[in-house]
Amino acid sequence: MFVRSPSSSRLQATLTLVPVAFVVLSVYVGGVLWAAGISFTRSSMLPNYRFAGFTQYINLFSNARWQVSLGNMALFAVIFIPVTLLIGYSMAAMINRGVRGENALRTIYLYPFAMSFIVTGLVWRWLLDPNFGIADVARKLGFENASFDWIVNADMALFTIVIAAVWHSCGLVMVVLLAGLRGVDDDLWKAIRIEGIPAWKAHLFIIMPSIGASIATALVLMSLTVVRMFDVVVAMTGGGPGIATDVPAKFIIDHMFERQQVGLASAAATTLLLLVLVIAVPLLYLKSRRKGAAQ
């Protein structure tokens, strides 16, 4: 019988990954480098490779719509990340206690994440529509003065997107944190019970620090959701009323394909990439440090 040597198996595995590596380097990395290069030119409808310094970045950060979109993204993150983390952890802690119907509960909690953000946005757009959604149902039930017009209110529309995003993402956070909770040593739980430590103190000061790698993973995933937020905004509000719910991703798409300002859109995309790196790299570093400490 012919037996493959470990070296031949590794060579075969390496050769199998070569096409994938080529695609990643040429398409993804190449695309990023091209966009970054174009952002330093005066490109408008078509690429123009004449160097123009930081002109596009100056125009970008003096653009009122870009400023609004950054503010919306920051406000969205400040609300979305803590609320999603709190609800996701609560669901994970409840399931970790061994409740009945655990498999059914995990499926129910994770189901919203199985839906695309477009579908999620359309569902919540209908639910929050002041003429056809929950408010209309309430009026038909006899509450004639019922009104809920946040989705068409410039001051409140962003919060409706937060509601939809939290509903969509809690299940994913629950799964990530549940995996961390299942890895906590049983002796630690026994010690907590013996000492009589209140549940909220145990989770806040003992359990959560011990699953720091899982929390860091959840934070990275939620941060990427914040930065990439586009589908749900388009589906629910289209960035409106006016530009009240505009976000950087929508700004980039609109200026790239509708306004045909390639240079400005590339500058915005490069800025957004730098924001992702600023957020993700420290969290990933923290995750790796915690894993190393655990080992």
From TrEMBL:
Its main location: membrane. GO terms for cellular component: plasma membrane. It is found in: Cell membrane. It is a multi-pass membrane protein. InterPro entries: ABC_transporter_permease (IPR051393), MetI-like (IPR000515), MetI-like_sf (IPR035906). The keyword Acetylation does not apply. This is Glucose/mannose transport system permease protein. Keywords: Cell membrane, Membrane, Transmembrane, Transmembrane helix, Transport. Residues 70-285 form the ABC transmembrane type-1 domain. GO terms for biological process: transmembrane transport. Belongs to the binding-protein-dependent transport system permease family. It comes from Rhizobium rhizoryzae. The keyword Transmembrane helix applies. The chain crosses the membrane at residues 12-36, 73-96, 108-127, 157-181, 202-227, 264-286.
